[in-house]
């Protein structure tokens, strides 16, 4: 790491450049720049030495780990120091190539008396993608439909989840298995989604949706406000008691399961009288109907604007004139109130105040609709060789929970089974944590944190471990090198992220990280 | 031996790392152990004085060669003294009439050539000297090297490979581009050149990378070299510091300029082949000849996660 150079420094009065006399080239170095060697730089008028592996992006090959040959070997002052309050993320760390070289930063710190090591690198993930959860009941597209960005297929609609439509985007087939344009569009889509930007997606035979992590989806130009409180049947179950005695019949319209109060078990138990109502669609169990209409972007995720279209004629033997009927969607956004006339046909009337409350309560119980984006990548390949000379041991160590994996300092879920396939919520990472290579593939940060003793045991590059303090002390010097952007950022850790260096019990801790 | 120079084994115990000031070499030789050791010792001895030799005539080496051409026949005209300086001058002189160029454009390749030449006094089956990406190669009969090419040093992924065999004339590889260690006047991410020597490849890569350009384009940030490095041999000439995303047509236009230059160098037999990269697009010149084959990988050999 940078040291103040022992050599003398001559200052040029004209332009704040300093002359480096570390070697006979005698470079004049401007503030914030390095000399022709990239080893010495001008930091605020001071000549500083930069350790070669900080500037890993400048030379394809450069030695870090050395044994003496004809002359002295490089000294390394590798004292371990106590510094559990800072965690170095891999964002902007770069990567080494080829893989068998030690990762760009292998940093030691002491946490609760235990020497910990964090191996920090950026992985180039060609096996990666995002899983997008869009909180809406609106029909976005049929399962397996292609999802397009800039006209190119970048993924597909996958199995929906409770109250949410799911997209699976990216993956190696779209990235590198199709045309160049498909790969580029896929890479751009993944990069933007992972970096928290809004992306326009078009689903084949379906909706246009604007997706941005942590923001409400915009479906065909309309921003979604809430996700449904539950399916139609669940809504009946939740609110049956509040409707009982105030209205004769309630239909909760839902594309998945439309609920009918008088037939539903919840209504039966309360003693709700039969109403002779007749629903279209396929009856699942009493009071629960599938497919009352086509999927769409209107009432409860169906295509209907007039709720009466899902009803047949009332049974004249059971219905009665004046029977009151509330029809409501699963978000409470759509609702209509009817009373049967003498001919037993529903007539729309104003919603009585005592029912307004129940509709409002459905709304209140809906959570805000959001898009959430999980990055999913596989780090089971040769990236591991930057961590250890024995890659499978890293996989085992992660599996055995001896090594904690984080992605830009945020927690990950490591998928069981072989390899290191993980998922991470992109909104829990610092902004712009992702990059790309033109291959195309995504560049994502990944950090492995483990005890120094465990690191040594799995064949880690112990000789490349350097203390955190060295990085912090010389951070300004680091700023000027090696990165396209402004250089290392110091951020306050999110309080809802477990602290990566905390003991594996999973305590959260507010602390600074970089 | 200079106490400044650092010479070490790399972790694999096979490759040697030599560093002195801005010179940074990775050296590897293949042969019987005694021959390899002899080659490494020769390399180290030669390496010890190279930087001092070059610095002894830096003012000349940083001077545009157009003037040297005019005075080349005069005995009192400026002449390179050291062996490396002579290699640098010889490699850059072919461009002096048409381009601004100083011998420094070939410094990395010339150092690689010089070290490799001294090493081959030993009996080696293969050897290479890699000077920050500019590489001098030695091949004995029947031997070959497979070389991977990288577009962006900060995001290493291979965009292509080439196999260099004994029967081919290529003994030098060099890469130039604005993202690299040296300043570039052009916007190429990387131009990799195969030539008979590393020094000639180095000079040619510089010239071709300079030619991949969109003069006056607003999305290219250029800064006079002197403002970045007061003693740069490029003086007030603007050098590329950033290139924003370009349209496909612009990428095509810039690459076409580079290809035109590369083709003329190919005709003049200054290079064997070149691969030009700009924002993910790659063009190959002379890469399909009987001498040289450059294979572009669609998928690339990634640092697979």
Average pLDDT of chain B works out at 85
Strand element count of chain B: 14
Coarse structural class of chain A: alpha+beta
Query: What is the CA–CA distance across the termini of chain A?
Result: 17 Å
**Rounded to an integer, what's the Rg of chain B over CA atoms?**
19 Å
> How are the strands of the biggest sheet of chain B laid out side by side?
1-2-3-4-5-8-9-12-13
Low-confidence stretches of chain B: 298-305
Order of helices and strands of chain B: EEEHHHHHEEEEEEHEHEHEEE
| Number of E-type strands of chain A | 33
The class by helix and strand makeup of chain B works out as alpha+beta
C-alpha Rg of chain A (nearest Å): 31 Å
Largest sheet of chain A: 11 strands, antiparallel
Q: How many structural domains does the protein architecture of chain A include? A: 2
What spatial form of chain B do the alpha-carbon principal axes imply?
A: globular
Name the biggest interface.
A-B, 66 and 50 residues
Q: Output mean pLDDT of chain A.
A: 77
DSSP helix count of chain A? Answer: 9
């Amino acid at each position: 790491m940078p040291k103040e150079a022992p050599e003398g420094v001559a200052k040029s009065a004209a332009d704040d450049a300093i002359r480096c006399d570390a070697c006979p080239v005698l470079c004049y170095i401007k503030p914030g720049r390095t000399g022709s060697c990239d080893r010495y730089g001008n930091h605020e008028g001071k000549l500083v030495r930069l350790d070669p592996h900080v500037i890993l992006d400048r030379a394809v090959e450069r030695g870090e780990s050395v044994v003496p040959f004809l002359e002295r070997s490089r000294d390394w002052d590798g004292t371990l120091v106590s510094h559990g309050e800072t965690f170095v993320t891999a964002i902007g760390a770069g990567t080494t190539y080829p893989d068998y070289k030690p990762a760009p930063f292998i940093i030691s710190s002491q946490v609760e008396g235990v020497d910990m090591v964090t191996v920090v690198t950026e992985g180039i993930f060609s096996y990666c993608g995002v899983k997008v959860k869009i909180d809406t009941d609106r029909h976005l597209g049929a399962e397996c439909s292609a999802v397009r960005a800039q006209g190119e297929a970048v993924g597909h609609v996958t199995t929906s989840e409770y109250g949410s439509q799911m997209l699976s985007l990216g993956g190696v087939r779209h990235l590198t298995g199709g045309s160049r344009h498909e790969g580029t569009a896929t890479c751009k889509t993944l990069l933007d989604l992972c970096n928290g930007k809004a992306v326009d997606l078009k689903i084949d035979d379906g909706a246009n949706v604007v997706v941005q992590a942590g923001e409400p989806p915009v479906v065909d130009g309309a921003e979604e406000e809430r996700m449904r409180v539950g399916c139609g049947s669940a809504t009946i179950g939740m609110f049956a008691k509040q409707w009982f005695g105030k209205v004769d019949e309630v239909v909760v319209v839902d594309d998945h399961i439309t609920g009918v109060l008088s037939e539903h078990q919840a209504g039966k138990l309360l003693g709700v009288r039969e109403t002779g109502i007749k629903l279209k669609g396929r009856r699942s169990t009493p009071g629960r109907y599938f497919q009352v209409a086509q999927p769409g972007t209107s009432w409860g995720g169906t295509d209907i604007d007039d709720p009466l279209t899902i009803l047949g004629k009332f049974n004249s033997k059971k219905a009665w004139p004046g029977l009151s009927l509330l029809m409501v969607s699963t978000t409470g956004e759509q609702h209509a109130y009817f009373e049967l006339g003498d001919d037993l046909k529903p007539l729309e009337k104003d919603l009585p105040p005592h029912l307004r409350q129940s509709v409002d309560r459905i709304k209140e119980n809906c959570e805000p609709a959001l898009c959430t984006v999980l990055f999913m990548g596989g780090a089971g390949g040769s990236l591991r060789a930057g961590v250890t000379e024995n890659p499978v041991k890293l996989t085992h160590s992660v599996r055995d929970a001896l090594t904690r994996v984080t992605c830009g300092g945020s927690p990950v879920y490591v998928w069981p089974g072989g390899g290191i396939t993980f998922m991470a919520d992109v909104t829990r990472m610092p902004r712009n944590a992702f990059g790309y290579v033109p291959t195309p593939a995504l560049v994502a940060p990944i950090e492995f944190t483990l005890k120094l003793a465990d690191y040594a045991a799995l064949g880690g590059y112990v000789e490349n471990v350097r203390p955190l303090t060295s990085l912090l002390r010389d951070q300004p010097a680091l700023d000027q090198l090696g990165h396209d952007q402004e250089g290392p950022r110091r951020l306050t850790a999110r309080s809802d992220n477990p602290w990566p260096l905390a003991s594996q019990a999973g305590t959260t801790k507010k602390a600074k990280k970089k | 031996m200079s106490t400044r120079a650092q010479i070490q084994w790399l972790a694999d115990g096979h490759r040697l790392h030599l560093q002195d000031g801005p010179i940074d070499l990775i050296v590897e030789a293949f042969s019987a152990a005694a021959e390899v050791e002899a080659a490494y010792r020769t390399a180290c001895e030669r390496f010890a004085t190279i930087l001092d030799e070059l610095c002894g005539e830096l003012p000349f080496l940083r001077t545009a060669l157009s003037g040297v051409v005019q005075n080349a026949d005069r005995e009192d005209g400026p002449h390179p003294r050291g062996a490396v300086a002579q290699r640098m001058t010889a490699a850059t002189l072919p461009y002096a009439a048409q381009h601004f160029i100083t011998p420094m454009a070939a410094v990395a390749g010339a150092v690689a050539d010089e070290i490799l030449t001294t090493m081959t006094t030993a009996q080696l089956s293969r050897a290479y000297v890699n000077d920050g990406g500019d590489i001098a190669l030695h091949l004995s009969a029947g031997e070959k090297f497979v070389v991977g090419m990288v577009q962006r040093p900060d995001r290493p992924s291979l965009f292509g490979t080439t196999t260099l065999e004994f029967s081919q004339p290529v003994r030098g590889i060099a890469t130039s581009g604005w993202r690299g260690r040296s300043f570039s006047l052009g916007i190429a991410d990387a131009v990799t050149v195969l030539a008979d020597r590393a020094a000639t490849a180095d000079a040619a890569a510089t010239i071709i990378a300079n030619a991949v350009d969109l003069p006056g384009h607003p999305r290219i940030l250029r800064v006079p070299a002197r403002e970045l490095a007061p003693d740069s041999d490029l003086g007030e000439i603007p050098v590329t510091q950033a290139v924003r995303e370009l349209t496909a047509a612009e990428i095509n236009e810039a690459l076409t300029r580079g290809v035109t230059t590369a083709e003329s160098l190919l005709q003049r037999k200054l290079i064997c082949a070149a691969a030009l990269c700009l924002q993910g697009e790659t063009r190959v010149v002379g890469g399909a000849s009987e001498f040289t084959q450059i294979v572009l990988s669609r998928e690339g050999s990634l640092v697979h996660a």
